[in-house]
Specification:
single chain, about 280 residues, alpha+beta, six-stranded mixed beta sheet, five-stranded antiparallel beta sheet, 7 helices, globular
């Protein structure tokens, strides 16, 4: 483009939000596919091309900010008037209300990152409309990924966090010729309970894989257990082929405190070496 000097990051931060999102994504797709053709995005960290889908909140607009972008004054506008006009002009923003206090709005996006290569590059981004959530926005996101990269074989595996996990989304992923790796947490009810019944009782000595690392003054150990579902699937997840449980145990090197996940490990009950006293 004839630019002979480095452009500051904050300059891009001011320019990019003012561009058309659709045209910006088309440009991103062209750049990613060009790098893929050059062989610069081959999977090296993982055995196959893999993308991670994550929902992020990129901005929070408090009530004064909402009034400012609408050009309204606080002493001349009611909450009902302001929120109605804001929803009309900015349908991508999610309106939130506290039990007490003024409303605010969140701007959320789905970010798709190619995590299988050395450079974890963003390959797509899609706003999450204000009337829905991450899970509700996933089908349209998958369609956009298929339209942009379906013929490139850039990736064949999709990973998501728990907020994007559902049986329907998994089925949609499979219908597009992709595999999935999705997280289960407490909101998934029966699915999580069944998974815990299968893998929750496994001991660390029976883990398929164990790995220890040092992170921020903690000795962190990961254990992985796997349950083969063969070709039968699991519950309504007829396309599922295995269940995987991952446990993270962290020991603080300074205090010796051990936590499993986010919970402190319960100390083992103390035992006495003396035989129990018999009662007459």
């Amino acid at each position: 483009m004839g630019v002979q000097c480095r452009i500051a990051d904050n300059t891009f931060g001011k320019v990019l939000p003012r561009l058309s999102h659709g045209e910006l994504m088309q440009c991103l797709h062209r750049l990613v596919k060009a790098e893929h053709r050059r062989g610069n995005l081959e999977p090296t960290r993982l055995p196959r091309g893999t993308v991670a889908i994550d929902g992020k909140n990129v901005a929070t607009l408090h009530w004064p900010d909402m009034l400012r972008v609408l050009g309204l004054k606080a002493d001349e506008t009611t909450v009902e008037q302001g929120t109605a006009l804001f929803a009309q002009r900015y349908p991508l923003a999610q309106e939130c209300r506290r039990d007490s206090g003024a409303p605010y709005a969140l701007l959320r996006v789905h970010t798709v990152t190619l995590v299988s290569g050395e450079a974890a590059v963003c390959v797509h981004q899609r706003p999450i409309a204000g009337h829905t959530n991450e899970s509700g926005s996933m089908p349209a996101l998958l369609d956009e990924l298929e339209a942009a990269y379906g013929k490139t074989r850039l990736f064949s595996l999709v990973t998501t966090d728990a907020g994007n996990t559902s049986c329907g989304i998994a089925g949609k992923t499979v219908s597009l010729g992709l595999d999935y790796f999705m997280q289960l947490k407490s909101p998934h009810g029966e699915s999580l309970s069944e998974a815990q019944d299968m893998l929750g009782h496994r001991r660390e000595s029976r883990a398929h894989v164990g790995y220890t690392d040092t992170q921020n003054g903690q000795v962190v150990t990961y254990h992985l257990w796997r349950y083969d579902l063969s070709e039968d699937g699991w519950l309504d997840w007829t396309h599922a082929r295995q269940l995987v449980r991952i446990q993270r145990t962290a020991e603080c090197q300074s205090t010796g405190e051990v936590t499993v996940g986010k919970q402190p490990r319960r100390p083992k009950p103390s035992t006495s070496s003396k035989p129990p006293r018999r009662r007459s």
